[in-house]
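Attaching the record inline, Q. Sequence:
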Amino acid sequence: MKTSILRTIGIVRTTCILRIIGIACITLALLPILPTCAGDVHEATIGYFEGGAEAGDVFYLEQGYRLVINEISGDGARISIFDHENEVTNASISGVSGDYTFEKRIDGIDYTILRATINVTGGAARVAIEQHIDPEAAFDYPLIGCISVSIREGEREPLKAGYELEATSVIDNNTILTLYKNDKIVKQEKLSEDGNRRFVYAKRVGGREDTRSTRSACSAHTVLIAKLDRLSADSVHLIELSQFEEPEPSDGGSGGSGGDGWNNKLAESDWFRYLLSASVFAGMLALIIFSLRQMRR
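Structure, as predicted:
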């Protein structure tokens, strides 16, 4: 009888020890990635351009980046990417339709910063440039909203800073989206499952709507950008709908950006992530100590 009791106690202790070891292993495995997972570190799209291109064109982008098309031929194109005054890469995009992705390695993670696609047909070229936030570079217009949403035809989706996005019509593979600010139309655009899938609204620093040129310095900043995922019978399904604080108006007044960007800044700060990681570690350590004390009783 005594032997049986001792054997049972031994099994219980072994089980507890295995659980503690398992918890410790999970904790150690999670610690390296906790600083990354603690904040909103996914790469939000902060710029998108699609249009005609020629050799010598310079595309001025956000966060001090610019893309230069050095050469276009029937075999593709040659481009250079600059971070302020420093050339960070030059590459050849081969084929009639090709693309190039510029990535930046930060703390062991590869962040996509720029993606360029060039289509060459009959000597004419079209370029599509998609830019994502560089976590290491300064950005004066913080992300204040990032969602995926479905909007029924004729209805409006309330956004931040007084904006609303309406699915004005859905016909076959096409939709018309209308963006309102304080109940006034600021932009209307047609999107298609077979063509343009991006809705982009940008404003110049002076508060005027963007008339972005590919051959001059760009002083416009993205306020809202969304990507068409799919259309259903009476609904528009959007993904990667990102909204940013607006540029200050030229008279120095309020930019209408709202005061809800502080939580995003907090979540993206390194000290907050490491503090959260330390809190999780302390909690796991307390759980292990508690389990050990229970075993001794």
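Residues 141-260 form a domain with the Tick-borne Encephalitis virus Glycoprotein; domain 1 fold (CATH 2.60.98.40). The chain has three domains: 2-30+270-296, 43-139, 141-260.

More tomorrow.
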